[in-house]
Amino acid sequence: MNPPFGNGAKVFFDDVGPRDGTSVILIHGHPFNRTMWAPQTAALVSAGYRVITPDLRGYGESPVRPGKTLLADFADDLAALLARLDIEQVVVGGVSMGGQIAMEMRLRHPGLVRALVLSDTTAVPESAEARKARLETADRLIAEGMGPYAESVIDKMLAPYNVTGMPEAAARVTAMMRATDPEGAAAALRGRAECPDYRPVLAETAQPCLVVVGADDVYTPVAAAEALHALLPDSVLAVIERAGHLPGVEQPEAFNRVLLEFLAGL
Predict the structure, then answer these.
(1) What was the pLDDT predicted at 65?
(2) Where in the sequence is the domain holding 144, given as residue range(s)?
(3) pTM higher than 0.90 for the full model?
(4) Which residues does the UniProt record annotate as the domain AB hydrolase-1 (predicted)?
């Protein structure tokens, strides 16, 4: 689809499903693109929802803006996209970095958010050690490209037993990582190094929230999801068995089931 202009960035996206259905925007994580949501999009559209899946700036088809991309920049891009589509309220869902962008949308554009879906993510700001690691990884991506990085993290993105047991899913995730422009991924990592503390805004979030986590996620483990669930006044927690950091990819049927159940209750 042709990208809109908003917030100074072009954003490519898919917009499918009935226009009179409840709108859901699904935000991919790093270093992926909008195609990661294909199983969820199909299930949601079949259930009558309108689904918007953007490529974040610097990812997928959306052009790169080298340097540093803050989570606030991503959130403002998506708010501009929704304004272009004349969508006044939307269920905002995201995985990992996408979950942080969803929280940033709740912070910066609260009127847009009808409900939140936070998958395998955290509201806690980066430690000094984590900030250093983000910046070092950004430099590494520029120097080495995405290939070595993809190989080093695939068994953390997916549970190790799914890397071997689900070769098609592993190949799909690896291909997405390899296809990402290093400049775009590095810009996002530099921005994430400055991730704010989202706990105060979440603690006062009245909108319903679904917190999802893979049972064997090593990046944002079940304890992190339980902390989010405890923080949010109106939330439900779903732990997806036999999944790591990307349960929507690893166990799409289980993920879709809890997502559709949550949406039906809105």
Answers:
(1) 87
(2) 5-264
(3) yes
(4) 23-250
